[in-house]
Design brief:
It is an enzyme of class 2 (transferase). This is Malonyl CoA-acyl carrier protein transacylase. With 313 residues, the protein is of the alpha/beta class. The chain has 14 helices and ten strands. A six-stranded mixed beta sheet has the order 8-7-2-1-9-10, sandwiched between helices. Strands 4-5-3-6 form a four-stranded antiparallel beta sheet. Helix 13 (279-287) links the parallel strand 9 and strand 10 (294-298). It starts with a strand and ends with a helix.
Length: 313
């Protein structure tokens, strides 16, 4: 059975995440302990006890989500889970996919995403950037509204999450103008997101430059599975190509809809979300309505066994 793994990014974190899986699998907390030794603080305690505001800080959310994805992946492999035919990650999740594919060392990745989060926060002072989810509008209408709302500032589609669900990002005032334009054009909902970092927009250019410099010193191995990168919906296997995709990802949109469509077109019959929550699973079901394509998420022992069974039949 051809199957794919997908790794969630920022926004899927929550207090108590992975607690059910950790109660049955000591490997979960062991993975978080590895991350904590790199970070210098107790990452598992933060994820289980909070406070939520601290977990929500970009430089802490990113290592937390990476550790969660890799902890789940390690449990999968421990129980005999096979390598998928394809992998992808939503934004930050691409780093989880790289580690799972063997292209990047886990400890190195933890330090790298902490740096990435710090660079992103420093690129745009708090309050100057914004993101908003637009529901029930056509891609072309959103693109046109962003062009109209820019007025010399920056606002553009940042996440093509699923048909009818697009996230825009840019300067706070320009995002506000785009929201009003889209509401007037009949968008079902336009919701300002509780973030201050306008990810996947040209405002992240200073962070992309810093990341590019940092990546020059990072060793990448040939991945066992070539990941699909959402910035161009292509597989990248060599180190320079991976570095380029990771830098471009910060300033370009996440093309999640196209990524899932590409997986299905390649013959994938099962897509497994590897990490906390079911955000991607919900998006995937809206993208691919063929009920013969199974959409699963590993959250606990029962869902792990269901995924193991589905990926060998």
């Amino acid at each position: 059975m051809a199957f794919a793994f997908v790794f969630p990014g920022q926004g899927s974190q929550s207090i108590g995440m992975l607690s059910a899986l950790a109660s049955a699998e000591p490997l979960v907390q062991e993975t978080f302990a590895e991350a904590s030794s790199v970070l210098g603080y107790d990452l598992w305690k933060l994820c289980q006890e909070g406070p939520e505001e601290l977990l929500g800080q970009t430089e802490r959310t990113q290592p937390a989500m990476l550790a969660a994805g890799i902890a789940t992946w390690r449990v999968w492999r421990k129980h005999g889970g096979l390598l998928p035919s394809a992998m992808a990650g939503h934004s930050l999740g691409e780093y989880s996919a790289l580690v799972a594919a063997g292209a990047l060392d886990f400890a190195t990745a933890i330090a790298l995403v902490q740096f990435r989060g710090q660079a992103m926060q420093a690129a745009v002072p708090a309050g100057q950037g914004a993101m908003a989810a637009i529901l029930g509008a056509e891609d072309a209408d959103i693109d046109a509204a962003c062009r109209e709302a820019a007025q010399g500032e920056i606002v553009q589609p940042a996440n093509f999450n699923s048909p009818g669900q697009i996230v825009i990002a840019g300067s706070a005032a320009a995002v506000d103008r785009a929201i009003e334009i889209l509401k007037a054009k009949g968008a079902k909902r336009a919701i300002k997101l509780p973030v201050s970092v306008p990810s996947h927009s040209p405002l992240m250019a200073p962070a992309a430059e810093k990341l590019g410099q940092r990546l020059k010193d990072i060793q990448f191995n040939t991945p066992a599975v070539k990941d699909i990168y959402t910035v161009d919906v292509r597989k990248h296997g060599d180190a320079d190509s991976i570095r380029g995709a990771l830098v471009q990802q910060l300033v370009g949109p996440v093309r999640w809809t196209q990524t899932i469509q590409a997986m299905v077109a390649s013959g994938v019959k099962v897509i497994v979300e590897c990490g906390p929550g079911r955000v991607l699973t919900g998006l995937n079901r809206r993208i691919e309505k063929n009920k013969e394509i199974a959409m699963l998420a590993i959250e606990d022992s029962d869902s792990l066994q269901a995924a193991l069974k589905a990926c060998v039949e």
